[in-house]
């Protein structure tokens, strides 16, 4: 279940990460070196702020998180978003929503009619990439049901983009996301071709072949939906999965490549990110990125995780009420301990959260927590990490442990008082603390674990965690943002 949750959450988180990475380079000279969440760009974005790509995906996800793809509700949310005066809106989307704003009711029919009129007046303008960039929630809403994915992807696309190619691209990418989540594959777009009208199937086969054989920069400009899909597909498929680093590092490498293609950088990287996240999971998105991610309507990375999971769960929370419960109760008794040598890096369990939250600057949760369990005045980061030790329990375990440990060290270097916890505080929490201690002190993982066990005497042995610790420092390399 943790693998499924990680991949579902990763699709929206990857979309937003790619969007925010590309935002500062949109329609500028393509970067050739390091790519970062620099902000700026056409919307004057803050570093880590997502653009209209993620904003519109959120409009869809807010509806699908209630359990169904209601196109009237999505149309209404699009109109509310447009009326909030977003900093950047695509040409076709803006024209359609502006025209529909004169109707008495913001319905799917009103938007669809406006999109059809726009296509008639602008025959080459109705196949922009503005529908493709936001399609990820549709895939999550119908995982395992190709017909429903295809029908909903086209219906949501047609709210603003009436050209059939825009709908086609959304069908293909949504099917690709489905295969990435359920089967761990990145090639699902090919299987989506069978769901398209026969007269366009061969053209799409050729377009996908081109994306796998031509240089990614060949797909510039990429405002056209076909070129945008090709650019994203090329970045994903032509960026090698690393063999000298955690495989999930592929997400970061491919997103950098997507931005380097140039032109509509935020959209191409958002499209690529939605698929990469669905394959590699939310845990492949590094802390440095997750910490910066934010945007309309006042949401952050954890909110995207909740929307994605609720969408895939048809609006139903899990057995403890996550991700909608305001509070999740931990087993007593509460305990808190400090990492040796650092009284401001605190370890504990969920039951202790209430006791310490007013005394710290940051909470790092390695388990499910309630939506109001940590005050908004306290920085809060959630990490998807299971205390299981079977294959699939933690698909990116080495990366997650290294990245979270480095996050703790980064926060402490900023002189922030940090509380890290899981439900019981006996397995995940001491392991992450041991990795951080090993990296801080330059000692072996085994020695670090022994020192942590002195302050967390009930710490539990987990074979998978111990394998990582035993191999430190050689097998766990720091992630890069």
What does this structure look like?
- It contains 20 helices and 7 strands.
- It has 481 residues and is of the alpha/beta class.
- The chain has 2 domains: 2-312, ADP-ribosylation/Crystallin J1 (ADP-ribosylglycohydrolase fold); 336-471, Protein-Tyrosine Phosphatase, Chain A.
- The strands form 2 sheets. The chain has a 5-stranded mixed sheet with strand order 3-4-7-5-6, covered by helices on one side. Strands 1-2 form a two-stranded antiparallel ribbon.
- It is globular and about 70 Å long.
- It starts with a helix and ends in a 10-residue tail after the last helix.
Indicate the low-confidence ranges by residue numbers: 474-481
What would the average pLDDT be, to the nearest integer? 95
Write down the overall geometry. Answer: globular
Q: Based on the structure given, which CATH architecture of the largest domain is correct?
A: Orthogonal Bundle
Strand proportion: 5-15%
- Element-level helix/strand string: HHHHHHHHHHHHHHEEHEEHEEHEHHH
Distinct helical segment count: 20
CATH H-tier superfamily of the largest domain: ADP-ribosylation/Crystallin J1
Helix content: 40-55%
Number of distinct beta strands: 7
Main structural class: alpha/beta
Task: Kindly report the spatial arrangement of strands forming the biggest sheet.
Answer: 3-4-7-5-6
Sketch the major β-sheet.
5 strands, mixed
